[in-house]
Write a structure and sequence with these properties.
- The complex is a heterotrimer of chains A (about 270), B (about 450) and C (about 300).
- Chain A has about 270 residues and is an all-alpha fold.
- Chain A has helices at about 5-35, 40, 55-95, 100-110, 115-130, 135-160, 165-175, 180-190, 190-205, 210-215, 225-230, 240-250, 250-274.
- Chain A has a domain at about 65-230 and about 250-275: Orthogonal Bundle (MetI-like fold).
- The longest helix of chain A has about 40 residues, at about 55-95.
- Chain A is globular, with a radius of gyration of 23 Å.
- With about 300 residues, chain C is an all-alpha fold.
- Chain C has a single domain (about 65-300), classed as MetI-like (MetI-like fold).
- Chain C is about 75% helix and about 0% strand.
- In chain C, helix 2 (about 60-65) crosses helix 13 and helix 4 (about 105-120) packs across helix 7 (about 165-185).
- The relative contact order of chain C is 0.13.
- The chains are: A mainly alpha (about 270), B alpha/beta (about 450), C mainly alpha (about 300).
- At the A-C interface, helix 1, helix 3, helix 4, helix 5 and helix 6 of A face helix 1, helix 3, helix 4, helix 5 and helix 6 of C.
Chain lengths: ~270, ~450, ~300
């Protein structure tokens, strides 16, 4: 590989440098803060590192957030898996059964994407209370599922549009049923679609705060609620909050990095088969 | 004919679905084994409690409360549901949703006054007349405090403390150095601010953090109390004053505007604790804040009486204390009503109030507790004053007299004024708020003196 | 018609059922809740306990009489324009530059870097940004002063007139990574790669390739990005909540935050539901172009 400094390379380097500064600075501040004592933070010298690094903050933070990390992982992964499953089925319906009613459904789903959570918070909690699911993990899982299935269905439909119909037609000739075609062929070809839908749903659920707060119990506290609690309201323990956040981000970041690779590999594989 | 799908070669999707099902199973098991207290049977010795003291000095205060409960009733299993957020912002979300869905906790932290009234109006709290009679609690606490937790003739919650809002904290060493006396009137405050500015041009004499808005209303309240006096203060928040034609309100705004050059300029970015931090870091010399600031200063290593002093502000035309309590009540339909009653008895006792209030920052609700229990001269003096003059207590607008819908909007306007002063516009806006939110109707329950 | 066409139709429906039914159930629940919210906005619910007495447009009239409502609407429009357009353009540039000019390692590094804000709790990144913006000792002003650029220091979110723009900048920062990821993925179809190759052989400049070949062929990806950003910008809540709490005064307030305050702090549930309906109505208007495009594509 030649490493001449072409204008293009220079441009890329400038971009990488600029973005690095903009994105590393906040993380730097987080790290510096996570190693301070609460007193040092109240001095509001955000940029200076602590003179006396408090690595113990991470141990304390991990101990505090561990149960809620488990809660959040269980809830987010379950919701992600179930909503790409339901959304995948629904998306296929939207993409392949072109009836007038489907058109209406499509519009309804698209609008539902814009629904602010606050708008359905009170009826949702009411529903969970009626079904006796409130205050359990199932309550949160079902709530998030209701709220994320439209997103999953729309995204999956968008991906199924790009799956060539010829693939299915040849299988149909072989006498395969729709469900067989869906699971054996379409879903496999649309794997990158599943991956990117999963990423989006996972982010939504993992980062959701308001609903998790509303249905909070000591046993189902999610990581976002915990991160908010850790700081407290009196003497703000930002050091523990930042340490906890740095530990916490590893989960979705790992998920991203793993699926991110999968995402691109899947696209290439799908395209080759097509 | 289409059931062949399941026999399909194991594609990755199917694996995914199986994993999902397993995860759901685990989650279900988890949920089943650890189901929360809210849905359990009524006879269990359990107590589900919502509060907002989650961390920092407040966490220790909550621990002190529960220690007192454990000491008296070791058999009660505590299910704590702490929700963070200053003054209970997030706390109210959880409560609103859970109460209206019919799954209340046994007991929850609430301020007295209008916030309490909103729960009573909703029919979510049991009246506690018999408990009050049994404990003779009405006689144990100041009359204005009893009034603040009594709606329609019935007490609904048990207060465990009183927070005083109108206190001016000052950097004692700086004041001594400059030969200044702590100000107790607006003129003295302005003079002190000018003197500090002259001696320390880099300082902002008066600290303020208006991010949560109510902090700005505190300053305005203190100025208003001096201009109009106690009776005017109560009438104003009862909606009985025509603000548009009220010279006192206008003067208070003008005074606030006069003070502005001496107030920390970037106040919309700071919360109350950060504004007190300005005093500790010598960026400011004074701050108007409630009694909870004492706990904050102490946590920063400042000693009351040595590093910082405190005076009630204003002390003209008379020394009035604006207060609000933290309280607990009994939910209607509480799953564990018996345990809750036991808890409320503990809340009313000195065994809980002494360790909790000393830690958290307020004054004792009970008048029979020795003021000497406080380690600092500031609260010793305040508690002694309250003991001798219980009639000088007025429910503050934080607590509040006026309905909550009004108060929230009023804070925004007050905070907006400190960022961009417009006296005429603000008078008009506030006067409209009083009619828009029907304050006169909503605050009619409040009796003073 | 004949019985056979009936049977064919029945078979089609039975074929579609396993795909459509689960979706329908979820959608029904969601719209049931939405209908409930619409009804609540027409009721007289104020206070903590439900009150479903029909009150007509009472609370809508109340809403349009509030100055705060109009401030919110104005702010929301700013968010929609300035949160979406710059982010999309920037993401397109970054994704394209990464495609054509970056070494593999650098590309992976940058992708991870711009993605973490999406993975991180906004309660936390919001706190960091409020420290960045603090006027006296904040990170940005400290850096500017250290660099001798005192002139460039600013009050950021303290000025009611410009505070919203600083908030939108955080949004761009937060969503850039996701946008880049989606656009990059849509660059990488074999057909598109072949088109780019042949255009390159024809001697087209790289900028030309971007405008004439890539952009028209990744309309789907751009659409996903734009809709995602529109959704997020319209629903924006946490950035405002954490960084300014709507202040100074209510200068940076947005509909979603007011909806929250009205419902849960002021206990004006009917008003809060009305605001939710307004957000929803705006969404409806915004989404029409997307829907038309999607439907056209669907029936082409």
């Amino acid at each position: 590989m030649r490493l001449r400094l072409t204008p293009l390379r220079a441009l890329v380097l400038v971009m990488v440098a600029a973005l690095s500064v903009v994105y590393i600075l906040p993380v730097y501040v987080m790290m510096v803060t996570s190693l301070k004592t609460p007193l040092e933070i109240t001095q509001r010298q955000y940029l200076l590192p602590s003179g006396n690094l408090q690595f113990g903050n991470f141990a304390t933070a991990l101990r505090l957030v561990f149960p809620s990390l488990v809660n959040s992982s269980v809830i987010s992964l379950t919701v992600t898996a179930l909503s790409v499953f339901v959304g995948g089925l629904g998306g296929y319906f939207l993409a392949r059964f072109r009836w007038p009613v489907t058109k209406v459904l499509f519009v309804l789903l698209a609008i539902a994407l814009y629904l602010p959570y606050q708008a359905v918070l009170i009826p949702l909690v009411r529903l969970m209370a009626t079904t006796r699911l409130a205050l359990t993990h199932f309550g949160l899982i079902l709530s998030y599922l209701i709220l994320n299935v439209p997103l999953a269905a729309i995204l999956m439909a968008t991906f199924f549009f790009s799956v060539p119909r010829e693939l299915e037609e040849s299988a149909e000739v072989d006498g395969a049923s729709r469900l067989q075609i869906f699971f054996r062929i379409v879903s496999v070809v649309a794997l990158p679609g599943y991956a990117s839908t999963a990423i989006l749903v996972f982010i939504q659920v993992w980062n959701e705060f308001l609903l998790a707060l509303t249905l909070v119990t000591p046993y189902t506290t999610t990581i976002q609620v915990k991160l908010n609690d850790i700081k407290g309201s009196y003497v703000a323990l930002y050091n523990l909050q930042m340490a906890a956040a740095l530990i916490t981000v590893l989960v979705p970041l790992t998920f991203f990095l793993f699926l991110g690779k999968y995402f691109i590999r899947g696209i290439l594989a799908g395209a080759l088969k097509g | 004919m289409s059931n062949g799908a399941t026999k399909a070669p194991v594609s990755q999707i199917v694996v995914g679905v199986i994993i999902a099902a397993l995860v759901a199973g685990v989650a279900g098991y988890w949920a089943g084994t650890q189901r929360g207290g809210g849905m359990a049977k009524a006879e269990e010795r359990k107590l589900e409690i919502f509060h907002w003291w989650t961390a920092g000095g407040e966490r220790e205060a909550a621990d002190a409360m529960f220690k007192a409960l454990k000491a008296k009733y070791p058999d009660i299993q505590l299910v704590e549901n702490p929700v963070a957020g200053g003054g209970g912002v997030s706390h109210r979300v959880v409560l609103q949703a859970r109460l209206s869905a019919g799954i209340p906790p046994d007991t929850w932290q609430t301020l007295g006054g209008a916030e309490l009234k909103s729960y009573v109006d909703g029919g979510y709290l049991e009246p506690l007349d018999s408990l009050y009679t049994e404990l003779k609690y009405t006689d144990a606490i100041p009359k204005p405090l009893a009034n603040a937790v009594t709606i329609g003739g019935h007490p609904y919650v048990v207060p465990l403390n009183m927070h005083i809002q109108n206190i001016l904290y000052y950097d004692k060493k700086l004041f001594d150095e400059l030969g200044l006396r702590p100000p107790t009137t607006f003129d003295q405050l302005l003079a002190a601010a000018k003197a500090i500015k002259a001696a320390r041009p880099k300082m902002s004499p008066l600290a303020l953090g208006s991010k949560e808005k109510w902090e700005a209303a505190f300053v305005l309240d203190s100025l208003l109390l001096e201009v109009g006096g106690a009776e005017h203060y109560v009438k104003l928040y009862k909606g009985e004053v025509d603000v548009a034609a009220d010279p006192a309100f206008k003067t208070a705004l003008e005074r606030l505007n006069t003070l502005r050059p001496y107030i920390y300029a970037s106040h919309p970015q700071l919360t109350w604790d950060e504004s007190c931090g300005l005093v500790v870091s010598h960026d400011s010399a004074m701050v108007i804040m409630g009694t909870w600031a004492i706990g904050y200063f102490k946590s920063r290593g400042w000693t009351p009486g040595t590093d910082f002093g405190a005076v009630t502000f204003p002390q003209q035309p008379e020394r009035v204390l604006l207060f609000h309590p933290d309280t607990y009540g009994l939910a209607k339909g509480a799953p564990h009503a018996k345990a809750t009653m036991d808890w409320l008895k503990v809340v009313a006792s000195a065994d809980l109030q002494v360790p909790t209030d000393v830690t958290q920052g307020g004054l004792f609700a009970r008048l029979d507790i020795d003021p000497g229990q406080f380690p600092d001269p500031i609260r010793q003096e305040l508690q002694t004053y309250v003991r001798g003059n219980p009639g000088k207590l007025i429910l503050d607008q934080h607590g509040s007299i006026a309905p909550f819908s009004f108060t929230q909007a009023y804070w925004d306007v007050a905070a907006g004024f400190t960022a961009k002063p417009d006296v005429a516009g603000t008078v008009k806006a506030v006067s409209e708020l009083f009619t828009t939110y029907k304050v006169q109707e909503g605050a009619a329950w409040y009796q003073w003196p | 018609m004949s019985t056979s066409s009936h049977a064919v139709r029945f078979a089609r429906v039975r074929e579609a059922a396993p795909f459509a039914l689960p979706l329908l159930v979820f959608l029904l629940v969601l719209y049931g809740m939405l209908a409930w919210t619409v009804y609540t906005s027409l009721s007289d619910w104020q206070g903590t306990a439900p009150n479903y007495t029909f009150a007509g447009l009472k609370w809508y009239r109340f809403m349009v009489g509030l100055d705060r409502f109009w401030v919110d609407l104005d702010n929301n429009l700013r968010w929609l324009v300035l949160g979406v357009v710059p982010t999309t353009v920037l993401a397109l540039c970054v994704a394209y530059l990464l495609e054509i000019g970056a070494v593999r390692g650098i590309e992976a590094y940058l992708r991870t870097l711009v993605l973490y804000p999406a993975a991180m709790s906004f309660v936390v990144t919001g706190t960091i940004w409020s420290w960045m913006y603090q006027a006296d000792r904040g990170v940005l002003n400290t850096l500017l002063r250290a660099a001798g650029l005192e002139r460039l220091t600013s009050g950021y979110t303290t000025d009611p007139a410009t505070a919203t723009y600083w908030l939108i900048l955080i949004f761009v920062w937060q969503y850039l990574g996701l946008a880049v990821l989606i656009l990059q993925a849509s660059f990488r179809s074999v057909e598109l790669q072949e088109m780019v190759e042949s255009a390159t052989l024809d001697g087209a400049s790289r900028l030309r390739i971007l405008i004439a070949v890539l952009i028209p062929n990744i309309r789907g990806g751009i659409l996903v990005v734009v809709s995602l950003l529109l959704i997020s910008a319209l629903k924006v809540f946490d950035i405002v909540y954490v960084v300014t709490f709507g202040g100074p005064g209510y200068a940076t307030d947005v509909l979603a935050l007011f909806q929250f305050i009205a419902t849960y702090q002021q206990h004006l549930v009917a008003l809060g539901s009305g605001l939710a309906v307004v957000i929803f109505a705006l969404a409806f208007i915004i989404i029409i172009p997307y829907t038309i495009y999607a439907l056209q594509r669907w029936f082409e």
